[in-house]
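Quick one: structure for this chain?
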Amino acid sequence: MEFAIITGLSGAGKTATLKMFEDFGYFCVDNLPIELVEKFAELTVNHPRAENVALGLDARSGDDLDQMEQILQHLRQMGIGYKIVFLDASDEILIKRYKETRRRHPLSEDGRIQEGIQKERERLQFLRKQADYIFDTSHLLIRDLRKDLQNVFVDKKQFGNMMVNIVSFGYKYGIPSDADLVFDVRFLPNPYYVEELKDKTGNDLEVRDYVMNDPESEVFVNKLQDMLAFLLPKYCAEGKNQVIIAVGCTGGKHRSVTIANLLYEHFNEEELGGFGYHLGHRDIEKGKAR
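Got it. Here's what it folds into:
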């Protein structure tokens, strides 16, 4: 039996995560009073027909949440195993989500979302420190989050507590402001100047072959993969839970898409560090005739 505690910041995806756990066959309970958590865990874990259980906890528990640290200690002493899943996101993304849904943050007494987020971070910090899995949903699609959760809780694969987002972009539209690593591939052969390739993208085999037929392209990709294979575990060891790798060319349609695809395919297949790997092409649709 698996006993999972789902927690995290309001707006980071806890409700959606609980629904996913239901789909995985878990018995899910949300916002259970803190004083009942220990008894609930004891009853479900020792029940002969108990299935996997997921318990949702968040800042709505108020001051009672302070008791949770002691309860977790009691669970460990009783030999009740549990896994904590913490959903996180950047302040900027959380504020944007709240504004889009026009919801009030549960801890923003004066209506200011930023203050509510800060209070919630402080209140949940002890759970984040003890979390077995941290998912930063700032740039994570629901389908990608589901895939990562399924890998861990259904397929029992290793998860390295870090999301690696690989994104292509066009310099003419600006460098992604949240990028951790930026690689300029404008020195590679440009399919834009080949008439039959101009309107295609790096997702098309013809464009990919054109870019990669240059020997320097293959050397560059191999060196880049080697460097990232060295860097990513170092970032994870330092405590980062998300790394955004941005690959740019002039328009974000040909060379950058090709290289981003190759990086994603390589690391996703290798499953380096058990990290979650996600791919995006920010500017691939821009500049098309309408």
